Amino acid sequence: MPQSLSPLSLSILGVEPLDEFIKEIADFIHHMILTRPDMAGSVEVEAKIGVLRDKASGQRIGLPVLVESILAPDALDLRFESNMSVNQHKHYNSLLNNLMTTSAQPGHPSSQLKYSHLHLVDSFFPGDGHDKVRVTREEQTGNVIACVRKIRLGDLNIYSPKRAADWRVSVNLEVPMQHPLGSPTYTRRKDRMSYAHEEFAIDLTKVTSTTSATAAVRLPQTLYELELEIARPEVLLATAATRGDVNLPEHERSAFDELIRAFVNNARILVRNSSDGWQ
User: Fold this and answer.
1) Is 219 helix (H, G, I), strand (E, B) or coil?
2) If DSSP codes are grouped into helix, strand and coil, which group holds residue 28?
3) Which of 4, 7, 211, 263 falls between 20 and 30 A from 154, CA-CA?
4) Do 274 and 163 contact (CB within 8 A), yes or no?
5) Is 44 helix (H, G, I), strand (E, B) or coil?
């Protein structure tokens, strides 16, 4: 008779070792939160799907690694491009629509996705330094949804050699502002299909940008983007504040790491379902 495998322990200690990949991303986001500027604002954590390109050649980078790897910040002279082709955009739209349908079926292993279709207009005005003031309106009603100055706190690039795409984790601070005077330097229209799942939003967006009437060149530019965002900044901050507190129950002090674990898993699934068609 063939020998059967007896049940195995997770390790010699009986526990599974901590996933260093997820912990590195969690540590990075946690550090960005704790060291952010001391001003009122909402912390935004997002993962964008795209391609890491060498600045000199414009080609996708190639590194001597076999699996997805977090790159040390500023270690390479590269840029991240989040634009995808129309076909890639349609591919993700179909994938997410199918998942939304199957997630509503009884016995599906995950929570149901919820869908909304948004038409937004962003207008950008000069601000302090390099940070512009963004005014976001509903395109149909003209109602102002947000007026913020977005401060970039930090990025982590993840190279995925086995996939058609890479990804970037970004942490930003969105500071509320008064509506600026004058004319915007440029605007962008966003046709956004947004899929909500538990603590996350997956946004598939067609972005059409135009410069102001005073600019020398006013040709519209259309981009197609996919991003994953932590939906409730207040939950992000609350769990970050209690991370590792030994005076709290295990589920409370580990809630932040659980949130980031699910965030990373969702980003990985989006990347692993990428197909050829990046610009």
Assistant:
1) coil
2) helix
3) 211
4) yes
5) strand
